[in-house]
Amino acid sequence: MKAAAVIEQYKNGRRDFRGESLRGGNFRSADLAGADFSGCDIRGANFSRANLTGVKFAGAKAGLPKRWVVILLGLALVLILFSSYFSAMAGHLVGLIFGSSSTQNQVAGWSTLIFIILFCLISWRKNILAGAVAVTVAGSVAVAVAGAVAGTLSAFIFLFLFPLLSGGDAAEFARLAGSLRGDGAVVNALVQITVSVALYLAGAIAVIVAVAVAVTVAVTVAGAGALAVAVAISVALAVAVTVSVAGTGTVTAAVAISVAVALFYCWLGWLTLKQESRDPWLRKIVIAFAAIGGTSFFQANLTAIDFTGATLKSTNFNQAILNKTIFKQAIKLELARPDNTLLANPRVREFLIDSRTGSGKDFAQADLRGAYLEGANLQTANLRLADISEASLQYANLAGANLTEVNAVNADLRHATLTGACVENWNIDATTQLDEVDCQYIYLLNGQKERRPSSGEFQPGEFTKLFAEMFDTVDLIFRNGVDWKAFIAALKEVQVQNEDTPLQIQSIANKGDGVIVVKVHVPSDTDKEKIHQEFNQNYQLQLAAIEAQYKAQLTAKETEIAIYRQQSVDMMEITKTLANRPIHVEAKAMSNSNDSSPNITIRDINNSAVNFGEIIGDVTNTINQIAADASPENAQLKALLQELTQAIEIDSHLDEEEKAEAANQVKKIAQASQNPDDAGLQKKAQRAVNFLETIAKALEPASKLAQACQTALPIILKTLGF
To answer: How far apart are alpha carbons 194 and 410 in whole angstroms?
Structure first.
């Protein structure tokens, strides 16, 4: 069925295309969402960039069409022909050991044999790349050593070896020396032969890669039968070329070596295909080469596609979207081109084919993003740091699994079994579906620590509720304690900035080492990242403002202390002056009908400087009893009361009676500050403040007391808590 006809019928509403032959069809960028292509032949079809969401390819046959099989097998044959020459040359060189007496030939033969054995051993134990590196290094060292010891070896041959071989016969010695000169010097021959062998082996290594590619391509596109044919052709050609280049005396040995080398090359190609960890770089090249002309899903949207039982060899999944794509019982999926999709991991790929095999397996750091794992058996599996975001794990068995730091954002875990699983620092959010999870208990820390619930089992729905609460919270982390004044101010500011979004403190946890975690509950539709960001910004601003305020207060206190010290000096001088004043007595004749003799009366206030001095002294003593070192507030209050006392003393706008009354009010305030729990004294102090405020308002602005009251009384009221 032609691709154009399929697309046209799809537009007309047809969705069922089961069993149709779509071989070689071009569906590039087509929208075929929801179509059913089960059992279709899609070999060579091009679905690049197509929208195939929800399409069924169950039992479909993907891969290479016949013409591309022939083309790739032809290319493989060319590579085998090319490699046969090098296999034959290797056999010929080694055969020189048995069929030639020439020193140069012997050196060439043994060098070749040693390098071949070295390469085969290392390639067998490690991989082709390790064998190639070892031979290259060995060849380089051999050339360097041969050149370095050339002079020494020549001297040794001339002075020791030749006399020994000649048996002391001068004529024989001369013949051997002439042979050395005539043959162009054995040492120089050694260097030349070593270089030649090294260059040959470098070419041979490149050919080995070509043979591996040829054999693997043959197996990939045509199966095990093609492998047998490829091996037979390789061996036959190697024998034929060896017979043609080898001498009659070396044919047997040369053929044996060339056949062995050819078989070894084919075996390496087979291992590359079967053991993905040996030479992943070579396997990647082979798979990509074998997928040329095959079914292509390049950059296609394969969300929720069903490949159950489909044959997928030589299929290109490069950059395809594999979200909840079903690969159950897929055939030859290991021969598809995965590139950077989740199919690149052999363990993951095998698990997707048969999800019953995951129990106890290690999937640490595995990419399972968007994987279809419904009903999968992952009991006691290790999923530490794995990415299962957007994966479908409905009804999966995760009992006892290690889910530490797993990324489960937007994962579907409905009806999954999580009993005994460890969920330490797993990453979930409101998109993670946990409805009807089967869980009796879990562990919040590795090593089966921090069991939840601590005893007993979760009741139905409790597990989901436990983690659902986490979705509607913003975690505010403080690493050096919390300034709660700044915290409340910042929280209120964030609430205002977000149109009065309700923000409630859900919990406060002390994690030790000064780390405090405050969980703030927010509405489910709130942008949590925005709230978190704005809070941090406002909190820092509030901290800066509070710090500036503290610095200003500290500066003010230092100024007040300096004033207090000066006032103390002035107060002592005033007290001494008042104490030395003479007492003035005013005599006044008072008429009395019964007694005409004059009487003398002493006015208690106006003519009693001694009484006012005593009042000032009494007030000063009371103020001095305030414990300034008890707190900064006490020190500040003491300084302010002393300032008021001094202002009363020197204010010219007050008469003596008014000064005495004002001083008594200051005394009441001082007494109240020393007895904060005495309600009676507190009331008197409050009245005293009111009295002083009244006096200050009645005085002229230039009055010392008025000025002092304007500055001191607001602070006194705040300090005493009135």
So the answer is: 63
Q: Which residue has the tokens 């597990």?
A: 463
State the alpha helices, DSSP H only, in 425-527.
Answer: 462-471, 484-497
Residue 560: φ, ψ to 5°: -65, -35
Contact 324, 344 (CB under 8 A): no
The contacts of residue 278 (CB under 8 Å, 6+ apart) are: 127, 128, 271, 272
Residue (of 220, 221, 254) closest to 240 by Cα position: 254
Give the angle 621-626-632 at the CA atoms, nearest 5°.
145
Give the tens place of pLDDT for each residue, 504-551. 887 787 777 777 888 888 887 778 778 888 888 999 988 888 888 777
Q: Coil, strand, or helix at residue 75?
A: helix
DSSP calls for 282-329: HHHHHHHHHTTTS-B-TT-B-TT-B-TT-B-TT-B-TT-B-SS-B-TT
- Whole-number Å distance between alpha carbons of 116 and 135: 8
Q: Looking only at Cα atoms, what is the longest distance across the chain?
A: 182
- Interval 85-110 mean pLDDT: 67
Q: What angle do CA 237, 238, 239 make, to 5 degrees?
A: 90
What is the predicted pLDDT for the residue at 609? 41
Whole-angstrom distance, CA of residue 643 vs CA of residue 577 = 18
pLDDT digits (tens, 9 = 90+) for 268-285: 767 776 777 777 777 788
Q: Give bridge partners of residue 260 from the DSSP assignment.
A: none
Asked whether the beta carbons of 503 and 522 are under 8 A apart, the reply is yes
- Residues 6 or more apart whose CB falls under 8 angstroms from that of 361 comprise 347, 351, 378, 381, 382
pTM across the whole model: 0.57
Please state whether the peptide bond connecting residue 453 to the residue before it is cis, i.e. omega within 30 degrees of 0: yes
Residue 642 makes CB contacts below 8 A (sequence gap 6+) with: 564, 567, 568, 571, 620, 623
3-state SS of 16-57? ECCCCECCCCECCCCECCCCECCCCECCCCECCCCECCCCEC
Nearest to 659 by CA among 701, 611, 700, 623: 611
List all residues 6 or more positions away from 242 whose beta carbon is below 8 Å from its beta carbon.
Answer: 87, 88, 91, 92, 251, 254, 255, 258
| Distance in angstroms (rounded) separating the CA atoms of residues 296 and 46 | 5
